[in-house]
Amino acid sequence: KLEPFVPKKGHDPRELRSWAKRTGFVSTFSGETGSSFSVTREFDQTTGNNIRNGYGDGLELEKGKNESTRSPKIEIDPVLGRARNRRTEIEPSPGIGSINGGLESGDTSSTNEAAKTSAPEPKRISEDLESGAAANVYGDGEDSGGPGWQQRPSPPRMVLGLKDTPSYGLIVFYGLQHYLSLAGSLIFIPLIIVPAMGGTDKDTSSVMSTMLLLSGITTILNSYFGTRLPLVQGSSFVYLAPALVIINSREFRDITENRFELTMRELQGAIIIGSVFQCIMGFSGLFSLFLRFINPVVVAPTVAAVGLAFFGYGFPQAGACVEISLPMIVLLLFFTLYLGGVSVFGNRAFHIYSVPLSVVIIWTYAFSLTVGGAYNFKGCSPDIPSSNILNDSCRKHVYAMKHCRTDVSDALVTSPWVRIPYPLQWGVPIFRFRTSLIMIFTSLVASIESVGTYHTASMKVGVMTPTPGIVSRGIGMEGFCSLLAGLWGSGTGSTSLMENVHTIAITKVASRNVIVAGSVFIIIFSFIGKIGAILASIPQALAASVLCFIWAMVVALGLSTLHHTQTASFRNMAIVGTSLFLGLSIPAFVQQYLPEAVMMVPSYLVPYSAASDGPIRTGSKEVDFAINGLLSLNMVVSVVMALFLDNTVPGSKEERGVYLWSGYGVEEEEEDGFYDLPRKIGPCF
């Protein structure tokens, strides 16, 4: 005897909405309007008795009496906000049709026989509905509602899950693979900020080693005490523009001796104050309250503005040596887009290692050009710029030689084999109100970027979305990691690298033990001074061309968070477009106030000198510097505009992306304790 499809009493189809709220599913099975196929009670007009079928007493299959005259049911897609073309929720099988035919003709014997032979398994269907594993109501291969209709994607098939631990050989391979895929985001920031501070090649090598050490330490801390997601921590591009604003202030432009140490100490003090603010926001739980104002519509323009901020630096620097930079960009695009799907020994090697492979190939090509004499000019010495700047015939070649030659850097000669970075290695930090205020806002932007990274990473890994408490804990730990960066003097703060999410999606490796193993090796490599020296010897044109690609990916990753929202919504388009445009236009207005000694500042750094020469004049130099500096930062203007507009313009949760982004979470996943602190430490907190 078959069990009832639904309970005889106390069944309300609307109860499915609690499951639908988590998945974004909209059911046609409701008591508000009739459906083309539903389970109801049928009353035989000829006999006055209830007809029974194979589903149990008092439960019948009723087909619409006059479907041709009934208006079709119109449903509103909860994400797109428009009518959806729906099929019947449960397609009637031929056996079901015979049941209905029997009902209409009064042939109850054929009804019972058909139900016994062709009825579906009601218990199995009921279990599927209760577990939320509903069948694809749109049919196989059919688009579920058009672009923008989003449900929580099925958990991806991972090679290694969050808690998996592979063999020793694989854990080393996967750990190094993870860091190599992020090489572009980890090693190129010192190549920008150290020369801008007046540092030597040896200083660049030292800062490079410091960044590697801090990346390893902070990644381990986040893996055990932060969100515990498999995310690599490192120097973020969020801190790069504020650092350049501080570096190019008027007082540091006028310094001739020990400029690098003084500027680095100023950066250290600002980063420490900003990180303390971030720690307080995170560990006190205040950020969990602020989290309600953050959603994909805010994250998308904020992260995109981080990448777009450097459009004036990217190719203007790379264009100094087009014979190196253009092949580099073409090779990166060829590896990632055309060979990205090629598998080598089971790995998409060209996609995963696109940056290190391209750098090695083009660096070798640039070395051959240097050795072959492509950059040897008559009467010009490779020792630049000191000797060539005095020679009029060589002055026009100085810029090309400096950016293209592979033997310009003396880092390999001057750097020691073993060097262990230590706290306060550049001196005691300098604390000032103006730079601290800039870094406080920067830490807030970095926190918003990390929120997007946490949510996206959890979906890629296939675990529940982190709760506000977990997010707040992660932000607090990132603040502590930035505090370490300020003490060691890396020049920037530390955040979860958003590019890491892309690496997880490609490699299908989401084990936190793999990330920890890779971090241990990075810490060991940071003690070898020659490794930092090799990285510091990368030609500037080559580094700039790689950064063009990386910054473009940052923009794309930021905008990709909009797929959690109604992308066709005019509200969202207006907010994102306005935030991005004003985020570029307002800083351009502030940056047009050029410094008095403009010839002393390289052209690609002129936009970052507006803090000392901007239009704001309040009478206080400290306040003027802070406000002008903040208004010259694209990401700060974009995040302020996006926060204000998204939280004041009316919009539903589905439209804003809150419904799908923050509404995930199933009880089975919560019981697995993916985000729980280590067993011996958790009870203390």
Question: How does this structure look, described?
Answer:
By secondary structure, this protein is mainly alpha-helical. It is globular and about 100 Å long. It has helices spanning 17-23, 94-105, 108-118, 122-131, 168-181, 183-187, 190-196, 201-225, 240-247, 250-253, 259-283, 286-290, 296-308, 314-318, 322-338, 349-352, 354-371, 392-404, 411-414, 433-461, 468-488, 499-507, 512-526, 529-536, 540-560, 570-591, 610-613, 621-631, 634-648, 653-656, 658-661, 667-671, and strands spanning 37-40, 60-63, 75-76, 83-84, 233-235, 494-496. It has one domain (168-661). The strands form three sheets. It has a two-stranded antiparallel ribbon. Strands 3-4 form a two-stranded antiparallel ribbon. It starts with 16 loop residues before the first helix and ends in a 14-residue tail after the last helix. The model is unreliable at 27-150 and 664-671 (pLDDT under 50).
